[in-house]
Design goal:
The structure holds two protein chains of two kinds.
Chain A (H helix, E strand, L loop, with lengths): L6 H30 L2 H27 L1
Helix pairs in contact in A: 1-2
Chain B lengths: L1 H19 L6 H30 L3 H5 L5 H5 L9 H7 L8 H6 L6 H18 L14 H8 L3 H4 L2 H5 L1 H6 L4 H4 L21
Classes of the chains: A mainly alpha, B mainly alpha.
């Protein structure tokens, strides 16, 4: 990435960063729905929960492949 | 709640540390750390949060928070013991905090799950779709829901009408609502007196 490393490794690092950020954002949104505990929060939680866990599992699977 | 929020904070911190330095995921220890940050902690947070949401969605307050349900909530306070939901609610024959859920969830193995899936659809329609003009049950009210509590109760068993119809009631051939036909009657609420104002 800085001109000194393997480009595929740099791309891989970017992907891990992206998935980790998605997980962090998803968890933050999940906790927000926990505080609200309202019907719309219930619906949002289902969406955020699936996306967060999905992003985490996908990100880790990608990490393992490299 | 506090413990769950703290765990969530730790999970977010772990994900952010990995995002800040993806190279930490190198090696066996790094993989374990990445697994916890990406999969372990999110599951540890998501599952109990799901439990909280599911528990909350059983509450009367939750059901009545949609305006479509307001009249059904008011009907619980009709000042007339002939009205079935009202007499159950006012005399605490059911848990007031879970009034809707108690009578409108089938007492079967997947009753809870089915209720949640339908509830999710209701929330979706409430926010993103168009609510129907009149609300109807998906299927005729099953005697099973009444008999879950009343079967075996002295007040039920001693009643001659119930004795005469016991087999028909058990098989569903006769519906409890054939006789106890005053339920929510939301279209006629304007004509009713109320025990007190609803404070969900």
């Amino acid at each position: 990435m800085n001109g000194s490393g393997d480009p595929s490794r740099a791309t891989h690092g970017g992907a891990v960063r992206l998935f980790a950020l998605l997980v962090a954002a998803g968890l933050a949104l999940e906790l927000m729905t926990l505080i609200l505990l309202h019907p719309v929060a219930f619906l949002s939680f289902v969406l955020f929960g699936v996306l967060t866990v999905g992003a985490g599992i996908w990100g880790f699977a990608r990490l393992r492949r490299h | 709640m506090t413990a769950l929020l703290s765990l969530g904070g730790v999970a977010i911190a772990a994900a952010l540390i990995l995002a800040a330095n993806p190279a930490l995921s190198k090696g066996r220890a790094g993989l374990i750390m990445a697994f916890m940050a990406l999969v372990g902690f999110p599951l540890l947070v998501t599952l109990p949060v799901a439990g909280r949401h599911l528990h909350q969605s059983k509450s009367t307050k939750f059901c009545l928070s949609c305006h479509e349900m307001e009249d059904y909530g008011r009907s619980l306070l009709i000042d007339d013991p002939e009205f079935l939901p009202a007499v159950h609610y006012q005399n605490r024959l059911i848990d007031r905090d879970h009034a809707c859920y108690t009578c409108h969830t089938s007492y079967t193995m997947h009753g809870d799950l089915n209720a949640k899936l339908k509830g999710l659809k209701h929330v979706w329609v409430h926010y993103l779709g168009e609510s129907p003009g009149s609300i109807e049950l998906y299927e005729p009210y099953d005697n099973r829901e009444c008999l879950h509590c009343h079967a075996g109760a002295r007040s039920f068993e001693d009643n001659e009408d119930h004795q005469d119809e016991s087999e028909a009631l058990a098989s569903g051939e006769t519906s409890c609502l054939d006789c106890h036909d005053l339920v929510h009657q939301v279209d006629d609420l304007g004509d009713e007196d109320f025990w007190r104002e609803l404070r969900p």
